[in-house]
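hiii so um. not sure if this is the right channel but i have a protein structure encoded as tokens and i wanna go backwards to a sequence. like what aa goes where. can anyone help
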């Protein structure tokens, strides 16, 4: 540190870098140890960063990078969508169902990219920008499953009728993408998800994760 630099800003940026380097977030105690400062300082830093949506804390108290970081770069969301679209298109056409990339935004799941199949007579209308609670719908539940199993590779999640009557969903979490917490999935008008859909969604999630690394 030199006389011309800000110690508080330096610590705040270090917090963001530390959080960006982990997929599972850090507690106040962990950040305190890594920064070499007391917990009170960390609480103040996190509160300030939260006000700007640069950091969010989950129900367990772990701090993670917030989507405000993405908003700092106006082209980041378009770049994320562009990277995911090839895998989403292939998934939608293969399954004949609407495919989507969903990211965490606070306590909600936010659809940031959606591709509808071109050859079906009907399919579920699902729009980018659609939000729903993390604990409802396959997209959010897949993300929560990844949080509960940080050391394992979670499988896919299936749901029925949680967001729309008569609609079923399948989703798998994005893994190994630093600073990004999300899932890839499909939604279809069906009483149950066909057996082959889950493994196919898992493959698509791996493809999107690879494109985002």
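sure thing!! here u go:
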């Amino acid at each position: 540190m030199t006389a011309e630099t800000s110690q508080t800003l330096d610590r705040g940026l270090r917090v963001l870098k530390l959080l960006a380097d982990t997929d599972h977030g850090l507690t106040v105690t962990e950040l305190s140890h890594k920064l070499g400062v007391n917990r009170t300082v960390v609480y103040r830093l996190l509160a300030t960063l939260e006000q700007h949506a640069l950091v969010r804390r989950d129900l367990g108290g772990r701090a993670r990078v917030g989507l405000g970081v993405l908003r700092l770069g106006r082209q980041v969301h378009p770049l994320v969508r562009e990277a995911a679209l090839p895998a989403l298109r292939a998934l939608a056409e293969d399954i004949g169902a609407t495919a989507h990339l969903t990211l965490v935004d606070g306590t909600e799941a936010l659809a940031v990219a959606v591709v509808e199949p071109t050859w079906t007579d009907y399919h579920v209308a699902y729009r980018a920008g659609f939000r729903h609670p993390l604990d409802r719908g396959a997209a959010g539940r897949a993300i929560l499953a990844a949080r509960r199993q940080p050391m394992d590779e979670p499988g896919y999640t299936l749901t029925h009728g949680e967001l729309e009557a008569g609609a079923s969903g399948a989703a798998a979490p994005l893994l190994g993408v630093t600073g990004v917490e999300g899932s890839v999935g499909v939604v279809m008008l069906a009483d149950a998800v066909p057996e082959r859909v889950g493994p196919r969604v898992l493959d698509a999630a791996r493809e999107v994760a690879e494109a985002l690394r």
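oh and Residues 79 and 212 are 9 Å apart (CA to CA).
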